[in-house]
Specification:
Structural class of chain A: alpha/beta
Pathway (chains A, B): Catecholamine biosynthesis; dopamine biosynthesis; dopamine from L-tyrosine: step 2/2
Largest sheet of chain A: 6 strands, mixed
Strand content of chain A: 5-15%
Modified residues (N6-(pyridoxal phosphate)lysine) (chains A, B): 263
CATH architecture of the largest domain in chain A: 3-Layer(aba) Sandwich
Radius of gyration of chain A: 24 Å
Number of strands of chain A: 10
Keywords (chains A, B): Catecholamine biosynthesis, Decarboxylase, Lyase, Pyridoxal phosphate
Number of helices of chain A: 13
Oligomer: homodimer
Family (chains A, B): Belongs to the group II decarboxylase family.
Organism (chains A, B): Oryzias sinensis
CATH superfamily of the largest domain in chain A: Type I PLP-dependent aspartate aminotransferase-like (Major domain)
Shape of chain A: globular
Number of domains of chain A: 3
Chain lengths: 440, 440
């Protein structure tokens, strides 16, 4: 394919993309295929002679689309949003063309891991300074990291990778960690000879969008020489709205902070932004300088070598799409997007509260509603099974205080009030059928 | 921006991308800006009101392009190639539109880390089975990983992250590790009570594209219960050509293997492929199953949950661009690409060998030529400085047996013989000037 053909095919692809997104609602949001369906539809080997472009594009619809979960369908309410916007897509086109390899952006999981590794390195150095006879292995075996019992699975995984102990801190009735809860565990662990070194706070937990009390937790961590990392993967985007800023009080005590613009800021996956209070802490943890990566400015302080901030060496040119989106939407446009989606969640909350058969299970602060049928976990599992089976909308569950709970997250940029209404009608219809069956 | 505007702007962008790539040779390959140049060209805050698209596109040229290193210029010979092709770009457009979040592909650095963590987990379990009284911390402090002294910096970094010791194995005169070299160190380390558990072999090292002798190393690793990972980040793509397959002999002993199609297989960054002999080894090392990630098929064996294979939870839909490229080029087209680039490297080698002032420093097996002026390291450093300063071509150096060596890698898809000739003329002209200065 030469440049001339790319000009023709590229323009067709632009129309194809616009058609796909304009008509996405007509597609079933969730695929109706069995695992392995793809195997019989594609050859076992790559073609020796080139295929035609027409055949490939036909196969996109025939082979690929049946297996796709349409994350940008207005009927998609699962997990958290995966951002997308036309300007970001334009930027990605340019980004593909430039194709340069940047050498701190990974994902929130990586940000957590990187902060934990930096904290581990700092803690070992601190203890060895006080007691130079202690071996690294001995210190490592005493280090303890902490996080909320509601924190994302990637936090526990970071501790596993870093070969350090991790303890879960219990939460209050709103699923948030408070200072006194962490303090109690710290006292016990220090008395047992352990060395607390890291706390990962969450602003906007995955199950219920709870906010840990960082204004209490921060001073405690600072006093105990513990690194405080804040994982605000989803909720972080909302802090561009002044009305949500109070939830960020205490951020000044944090050593590092991360959020994912690819979740809720209209920038397509992947794009995750990390701040570090003292960048030498991060860089010191795993800096490597082979000759082929040396450059003139590395000791000048003028250049930030993000390769020391992440696990991979290379990174994509993600700032380009962020820049397009900031400029095409403006702060007002981005705020309007956040507020609209929070508003839709509140509308859904009202619909649930008006139905006595249902209950709301956690405060609705942002774009996530946790709800369930009053009754057993089995009943709610059956309801979710019906919802999943019908393929009209897509939801995932969570566990809150032992209860099986349904999570409705406002995800798609194109979700409107009518989609919320339709979703609720659909859920109540299935609930009605389910309760009827139970009566018989 | 609505779908209608996206249709218009998208088509403009397609032309913009084609123009950029057709005229890329006219741009200086390496930027002539000082670090921080961007700061004064952009506002300190995101705009409150949207900017116009026209202004943004003007700024791409005014603000962004002056700072870009043009990785796809035929004058770019640094590092290793960053893949790009028109079909991959088309796929990336569609990929952006679908914007689904896959939950095993990261980069080669990540593949190395993941294999090391899996090996660490396996080794700890194995030792504890034989001696249940040994604590995890005690075992961890005795584990040793090994790699070539020529291996990529990311290998050493993986050991640092995994909190295990790593030792560098010396290489032969061709910069490759041989079985007997590893064997010697293993005997010493075992006698000292250490536990060897992991060896990272390289096929195509970054400095000189050397190939470790995996046919000797593999049986040794298997016999010693050590995990053998193969990092073939660059050279791996060449194994689609039968004439390069003998370099892969011994791969059957490996526990894991990785290469980067985004280096040399025309698939734009990022795209890295990893194979694992026994996938339960990888999955067992850090599997996490929160309720919101559970799905019907997870225990059926029909689905490969790649999220257990990588550090981040999400991954981009990278297989799409691989699929476009395989189909649009066919195996023949991809082989022709590899062979053409190896041929260009051989042409450059001939030019260097014909000039008595220069020497070739390592065998030219693939698309990389290591060469230098006969003389001191200072002389070669001065030559590279002149090359970098002239901005006509872009090279990076490496260190081989204490010598400062220049690396010319065939990178761009559009590099032709005339670019090689021009590059050599340019280098010899600068060398002539340099040697004249030295005489005075």
């Amino acid at each position: 394919m030469d440049a001339a053909e790319f000009r023709r095919r590229g323009k067709e692809m632009v129309d194809h993309v616009a058609d796909y997104l304009e008509k996405i609602e007509e597609r079933p949001v969730y695929p109706d295929v069995e695992p392995g369906y793809l195997r019989s539809l594609i050859p076992t080997e790559a073609p020796v002679e080139p295929d035609s472009y027409e055949d490939i594009m036909k196969d996109v619809e025939r082979v690929i689309m049946p297996g796709i979960t349409h994350w940008h369908s207005p009927n998609f309410f699962a997990y958290f949003p995966a951002a997308s916007s036309y300007p970001a897509m334009l930027a990605d086109m340019l980004c593909s063309a430039i194709g340069c390899i940047g050498f701190s952006w990974g994902t929130a999981s990586e940000a957590t891991l990187v902060s934990l590794l930096a904290a581990r390195c700092k803690a070992i150095r601190r203890v060895q300074l006080l007691d130079p006879k202690k071996s690294e292995a001995e210190i490592l075996s005493k280090l303890v990291a902490y996080t909320s019992e509601q924190a994302h699975s990637s936090v526990e995984r970071a501790a596993l990778i870093g070969a350090v102990m991790m303890k879960k801190v219990p939460t209050d009735s709103l699923y948030a960690v408070r200072g006194e809860m962490l303090k109690k565990i710290l006292e016990e662990d220090k008395a047992a000879g352990l060395i607390p070194f890291y706390f990962c706070a969450t602003l906007g937990t995955t199950p219920s969008c709870a906010f840990d009390h960082i204004a209490d937790l921060g001073p405690l961590c600072n006093q105990e020489n513990m690194w405080m990392h804040i994982d605000a993967a989803y909720a972080g985007s909302a802090f561009i709205c002044p009305e949500f800023r109070p939830l960020l009080n205490g951020v000044e005590y944090a050593d590092s902070f991360n959020f994912n613009p690819h979740k809720w800021m209209l920038i397509n996956f992947d794009c995750s932004a990390m701040w570090v209070k003292k960048r030498t802490d991060i860089i010191g943890a795993f800096k490597m300088e082979p000759l082929y990566l040396k450059h003139e400015n590395q000791e000048s302080g003028l250049v930030t070598d993000y390769r020391h901030w992440q696990i991979p060496l290379g990174r994509r040119f993600r700032s380009l799409k962020m820049w397009f989106v900031f400029r095409m939407y403006g702060l007002q446009g981005l705020q309007a997007h956040i507020r609209k989606q929070v508003g839709l969640a509140k509308e859904f909350e009202s619909l649930v509260r008006a139905d006595k058969r249902f209950e709301i299970c956690a405060p609705v602060v942002m774009g996530l509603v946790c709800f369930r049928l009053k009754g057993t976990n089995e009943l709610n599992q059956s309801l979710l099974k019906k919802i999943t089976k019908s393929r009209e909308i897509h939801l995932v569950p969570c566990q809150l205080s032992g209860s099986f709970v349904l999570r409705l997250a406002i995800c798609s940029r194109s979700t409107e009030f009518r989609h919320i209404q339709q979703a609720w009608q659909h859920i109540t219809q299935l609930a009605f059928e389910l309760l009827q069956e139970h009566h018989h």
